[in-house]
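Archive transcription. Copying these from loose printouts into the bound notebook so they stop getting lost. Printout 1 of 2:
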Amino acid sequence: MPDLRDRLMDDHFHEECGIFGVFHPGEDVANLTYFGLYSLQHRGQESAGIAVSDGEHIRMRKEMGLVSQVFDQEDIERLGGHVAIGHTRYSTTGSTRLPNAQPMRFEHPTLGPIVLAHNGNLVNAHGLRQELSAAGAVFESTSDTEVLGALLTRTRGDTLEEVLASALPRLEGAYCLLFLTRDTLAAARDPLGIRPLCLGRFGDVDAPGGSGYVIASETCALDVIGATFICEIEPGEIVSVDRSGMRSTKIPHQAAGRAMCSFEFIYFARPDSVMMGQSLYEARRRMGRELARESPADGDIVITLPDSGTPAAIGFADESGLPFAEGMIKSRYITRTFIQPTQRLRESGIRLKFNPMRHVLEGKRVVLVDDSIVRGTTSRRIIDELRRAGAREVHMRIASPPISWPCFMGIDIASRRELIAADHSVGEIRELLGADSLQYLSLTGLRKAMGKPDGEGFCFACFTGTYPVAVPEHLEADKLALEIPLAAVSS
């Protein structure tokens, strides 16, 4: 599980996973999947895995760590085949240990092996697990993904599409799913489209059948392997790919509406990705422009906490007429370390990741633009470092509204106790952070910047407390809610 040092050094929401799948006969699909996952590493850094089928055998490797740590060239060469899925994980349900790593393999009585990768969070996983346990299912992990796999193995059907059409309507919450059988790649997206999923193709996108397909969490993963973006997989859509081509069906009995997570636009996804027809870089720059219009600051320079707040900071600077400057340098080589720092280094641990530029900051009135504040731990330390480097004033501007409510749809915040804005006013937060001023982008401004002034099609629950699906009370506890049932089963 991520320790306190990691969380203090990166005070943001964390998404659950990145998923990537490819069907491309005659090509090195394991290598393509490796680089696809590498481009999605920002979505999860706890574990990584790849499963590949050659039509007869399914081979899989998964381990704790980053993609580059889990796989070497020999691993990739051993994963021969024409269809593959991959996964990189940040846990929101289940602890950080190998049994929870993905993809996960299950045996269906008719279809044989099914390998599954999941991004999201099932809010009814606890109830499903109790039901399946009573029916004889034995669980080895504490992940809601295993609950889904157990459900699939107990769902009748002669084809994968039939099994999915029967099983998926029972799921509640956020999910983007990839499935691998011996000869098929399939994907499904929850009916509200909370998490992103896109479809791409190799070669001539207008050519009938035969060419390879790729499915990924974000379009940036298509770019890195030279695939062409075709479309986003629609909410409630099931896509299947095999040697006969690509097919699309709908999940039966799905609710109407759409609720894409607004934080995909604000922070999660890479700025070079495209979602809902929009460049995320441009959307974030518009957030900065709206913020400057709503809450101008009397400063000398605009800086950001690299890298997630950079587009918004550039937009703020453009709109306000203030110069944008690199006030802090981020180390590009900081990952988790098993070497324990000394107490002195722990107390100033933010410097391991961000180093202030004294010659840029000294004597300046600094406007610090960031995308969000979750716990406030990092923001307080950053402001202290800016003052220590000579900043005369620090005015903080946040390119999203105050986060007052937890998320249960695949983000690692499951309690209001962790949110500084849940029980503090903006003025109180300013005092706690030690800023000279603090302002947030309004919800109206955020919606406008996202190209949806009415907010239609997005989930803003972390700002408003209005969730797109009903949330069971036990989920307010924490992401390890399934640990206790596992202990009871194991004892």
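Printout 2 of 2:
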Amino acid sequence: MAREVTQPDDEALALGGIGECLVLEGKAGDAVRHLDDALEIFRRLGMRREIERVTRRLAGLRPSA
């Protein structure tokens, strides 16, 4: 709905929430996709707190190199 009414901040928050739910379900791959999408929007909007939060979450989900 947020996407349809052009509310990118709400869209990003929804994507982040879906990502967090997927983490809890043990679906890290799906979670990363949603969190990456949320992060892209947060960056575009300059939402620093959310950028930091999602970046930390993604760091914990991705295997270290």
